[in-house]
Design goal:
A six-stranded antiparallel sheet has the order 2-10-6-12-4-3. Strands 5, 8, 13, 14 and 15 form a five-stranded mixed sheet that branches. It has 216 residues and is of the alpha+beta class. Strand 14 (187-192), helix 5 (196-200) and strand 15 (205-208) form a beta-alpha-beta unit. It has helices spanning 2-8, 35-41, 58-61, 64-73, 196-200; strands spanning 14-16, 26-29, 51-54, 79-86, 93-96, 101-105, 109-115, 124-125, 130-134, 139-142, 146-147, 159-166, 182-184, 187-192, 205-208.
Length: 216
């Protein structure tokens, strides 16, 4: 699949999360058994179009792996184990948090990533983004300095990604912040200047260059 993605997306730099290039964005976690949580994900119905994000999924949070993620990867902080799933092909936007995020690929998927250090005067050139392929079952930590957004699918069946974050992240803000990039609790977000959906929601246009589409 990775070779196919490279061939069909010549303008987007493609790698596996197993490649050295992923090291500045995150790390692969290999000492967790993801079989049980993937089975729970497979019980959740995919939307027919578009993607869906849930901060916390009760069925996932009850699993032993979720307690282990909280204790070992978030240092016993209150943690939410949610999910992002459905259909998505484009870069569209980039977000970041003040902490790492844990992702488990319940299906094969692609993460398009950048770093906060590549944001210059509030702008990010999409040519600085790189795409990383995750095989089903792979689990990664995405660092706090890494820009990321909705995963991209690699088949018409869609994608499913488990998302672990400190509790409350991505919730609706209680106050109107002075920082216009702060879009949700612990979520800073910039939109591609051509992504009208995000712009209409009030997201600041901070990405220019090609709005990459992942072809498969």
């Amino acid at each position: 699949m990775l070779n196919t993605l490279k061939e069909k997306n010549p303008t987007l730099k493609f790698y596996s999360v197993n490649d050295k290039e992923f090291e500045k964005y995150g790390k692969v976690i290999t000492n967790f058994d993801t079989v049980e949580i993937i089975k729970e994900c497979e019980k959740i119905e995919m939307p027919s179009e578009g993607s869906k994000y849930e901060l916390g999924v009760d069925a996932l949070e009850k699993l032993e792996i979720s307690k282990k993620i909280q204790d070992e990867l978030f240092g016993e902080l209150d943690t939410q184990i949610g999910a992002c799933y459905g259909h998505s092909n484009y870069l569209n936007g980039l977000e970041w948090h003040k902490n790492s995020e844990i992702n488990i690929a319940a299906t094969p998927l692609v993460l398009i990533l950048g770093t906060i250090f590549d944001i210059k005067d509030g702008k990010f050139d999409s040519k600085d983004a790189k795409a990383f392929y995750l095989e089903k079952g792979q689990m990664v930590e995405v660092y706090a300095t890494t820009l990321h957004f909705c995963p991209c699918e690699v088949s018409k069946d869609g994608f499913f990604c488990v998302v672990g974050l400190p509790k409350g992240t991505n919730g609706v803000l209680d106050n109107t912040p002075d920082d216009k990039l702060l879009f949700r609790k612990n979520k800073w977000l910039i939109a591609h200047e051509k992504n009208q959906v995000l712009l209409d929601k009030g997201v600041i246009p901070g990405i220019y260059g090609e709005n990459y589409k992942v072809n498969y």
